[in-house]
Amino acid sequence: MLLSLKEDHKQHISVLIPQPTNVLQDFCKMALDFLRKGPTPKLYQTAAQKLDVQPEVIQNAVGGLVNLLVESCKHQLSDLDFRDSVLTLGFSEEQQETLEVFYKGKKQEISDALSQLTLDLPHYHDLEWRFEVQLASRALQHQVTPLITMNLTLETKTPLASGSSTRKNIVLQTDPTNLVHITQVLEAALLENRGQHSRRIQRSFK
């Protein structure tokens, strides 16, 4: 089968087509480094200066190459299918050979990195809560203590049984002030997830 990439990924990876094979080899190393440790802006800055382009162009090119390698491993492309897919992108036969050698040599490592990225962690299923107020005690007769009790249900898919899952209930109790703080932290995390850096990484693995 021939691999079909999205148009934006094709555009990002097209930057590598006019480059000599030694530069393409460097990008292969940066793509593998991306899978191992994530993006390295300083490295992209250095490469951008050498090629006289913006660092974002380098990072997009690395992301496009990562996507090519990831999708090839996901679909378990044979060496022949990978070579044909690369040629349809516009690479020369010499560049195709460089990419094929890299793909053959690092296929297992890329697959291992993918398996770590796709670990099925527990995720939200349901939440029940109730609001409680302790009006007084023998020691403090005029104190009002509001508490929120929550029953959080998490669900985890069972790897050995397709479609099966297990659920776990966790009982939590907090006061309104702490709950507001937790909410603010979660909202900040969601906001960061919508940022350019997070979207760029997500696009690389689609």
TrEMBL record:
<protein>
    <submittedName>
        <fullName>COMM domain-containing protein 2</fullName>
    </submittedName>
</protein>
<dbReference type="Pfam" id="PF21672">
    <property type="entry name" value="COMM_HN"/>
</dbReference>
<dbReference type="InterPro" id="IPR037354">
    <property type="entry name" value="Commd2"/>
</dbReference>
<dbReference type="InterPro" id="IPR017920">
    <property type="entry name" value="COMM"/>
</dbReference>
<dbReference type="Pfam" id="PF07258">
    <property type="entry name" value="COMM_domain"/>
</dbReference>
<feature type="domain" description="COMM">
    <location>
        <begin position="123"/>
        <end position="197"/>
    </location>
</feature>
